[in-house]
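Notebook B, p. 112. Complex prediction, attempt 2.
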Amino acid sequence: MTSLWRASRAPITSDDPVERCNDVVVGAGITGLVTALLLARAGRDVVVLEARDAGAVTTGHSTAKVSLLQGTRYSQLLRHQSEDVVAGYVEGNREGRDWLLRYCDEQDVAYQNRSAVTYAADSGRGLEQARAELEAASRMGLPVRWAEELPVPFEHAGGVVLDDQAQLDPMELLEALVDDLRAHSGRLVTGARVTGMGQSLRPVVQHTRGRTRCDQVVLATGTPVLDRGGYFAKLSVSRSYALAFDHPSPPEMMLISAGGSTRSVRDAPGPRLLVGGDGHATGRVRSEREHLDHLRDWTATHFPDAVETHAWSAQDYRSHDGFPFVGTMPRGLGQVHVATGFDKWGMTNGVAAALDLSASILGSQMPWSRPIHRRISRPAAVARLIGINARVGMSIVTRTAGVALHPLQPGSPAEGEGEVGRRGVVPVARSTVDGRTCAVSALCTHLGGVVEWNDAEQSWDCPLHGSRFAPTGEVIEGPAAQPLPARRMPDAEQG
Ligand SMILES: Cc1cc2nc3c(=O)[nH]c(=O)nc-3n(C[C@H](O)[C@H](O)[C@H](O)COP(=O)(O)OP(=O)(O)OC[C@H]3O[C@@H](n4cnc5c(N)ncnc54)[C@H](O)[C@@H]3O)c2cc1C
C-alpha cells in the first residue's frame, strides 16, 4: 500500500560513490537526512546509506503533523519522570519544530499552519485523559487552552488546543533535504542495506554495495540494525493505518483522540481528509485489513461525502520509558550513534535527534538533552520493560507451539494469502500474491520468531521485534538485516 505522499512522485533514489568518508549515516528518513545535512553543512564528508529509497519506511508513510501537542504524551511522561527531564523533551521538540519550519521557509517546502488538538473521545476516560494532558502541557509551559466545542462532525467531550503548529507533505521535505545534502557535497546511496560493521580503530560499515570506512556512524534506521545495546528489547513496535479521501471541507485542524482506539485527523491540500490510527503491536493481530476497515467505517459515519483515494500503514517504535533513545551505542567506542523511539512523533523528535547527534559529533551538546541523557528509569518504566519482554516471550511460546501442530498441506493458499506451517520440522511461510506462490523460512532472521501474514500489506511480519519481509523473503523493515531464505514448496506444487 502506498501513502498519499509517495503515490504522487517518483521514488527518491541516488547512486553516489560509497568510498571512504567522515560520517556514514544509515537510513534516509527524516532523522538520517537532517543529521547528514547538518554534518555536511559543517564541512564533513557524509555518505547516507539507504536500504530502499528515501522515505520508503516510516517517514514517507507518516501523517506528518509537526506539533508540540502530542496526544497525551506529557501526562504519560510526567507519570514516569521528573519535570526537568520532560522539560528537556519539550525544549528538544520545540527546537526540532522551529528548525524544521525555518528550513521549509528557506527551501520553499509547503506547510500549513494548524491548531493541534487532543480531543476527548468520550466523557469518561477520554475526558479524564484530555484534562490531564491540559494540566501537564500547561505545567510544561505550553500555551494550551480548553475548547468545549470543536468544529468537527464527530462526538467529543471537548479538547486541548495548541495553536500555531503545522502539517506538511513529508516526501516534499525529504526531496528538499536530499537536494540540499548533495549541494553540500553529501552523498546518498539508495539500495544499500547495511548488514554489519567491523570496528578496530575506525568503523568499517558492511553493506550490500560494498564496505565503507569512516570516522563516525549514525544509525537512523527506525529501530537500530546492529544488535549492540539490545535496543530491540527496550522498544515496543506499533503499526497503524491511514486513509486519504477527497472531501470538500475537511476540518482545518490536526486532531488526535484521547480515550478509546486512536483516531487521528488532518486535512491536506486538494482538499483532502486524512484519517489515521487503530494501531496495534506488529504481527500480533488476526487481520490487519480489519484495522483499516475500522477507519473506513468511522469515516463513513462522520464524513459521508469522503471518497477514499489512498490507504496505507506504517510502524514506529516506543521505548520502555517513552523517551527517545538518542546518543552513542554501547561498545561503539563513541563512534556509533543511534536515534530511535519516537513513538509516532518523529517529525519533531527526529529533527531534535539530528540536532543532538550532529552537535555531539561536532564536539558540543544541546543543553536540553543533558537531563534526558542522564535520566534514570523509574520503577514504572522498569515494569514496562518487563512487560514488553513478557509479551515477546508469550508470543514465542504460543506461536511456536501453534506452528508445531500444523503441517503444511500440498496446494497453495488462496490469492493474496499466506500460511505458516511445518514441513518436517522446519516451519515454512507460504504465500500466493499476484499469482506467484513463494515459500520461505518462517523463522525471522533477527531472533528466530515465527512470522505472521499481514493481510493488508501482504508481508510476513515478526511479532517479536517488528521485522517485516516481502513474500519473497526480502527485508522490508525492522531490526533484521538478512532475508528469509527460500524453502522448497510442498510436493504437489513443484513443477
Ligand atoms: C502511521 C504513522 C503516523 C505518524 N504520524 C506522525 C505525525 O503526524 N507526526 C509526527 O511527528 N510523527 C508521526 N509519526 C512518526 C514519524 O513518522 C516517525 O517517527 C519518523 O518518520 C521516523 O523517521 P526516521 O527517519 O527515524 O525513520 P524512517 O523514516 O523509518 O527511516 C529509516 C530508514 O532507514 C532505512 N534502513 C533501515 N534499515 C537499514 C539498513 N540495514 N541499511 C540501510 N538503511 C536501512 C529504512 O529503509 C528507512 O528508509 C507517524 C508514524 C506512523 C507509523
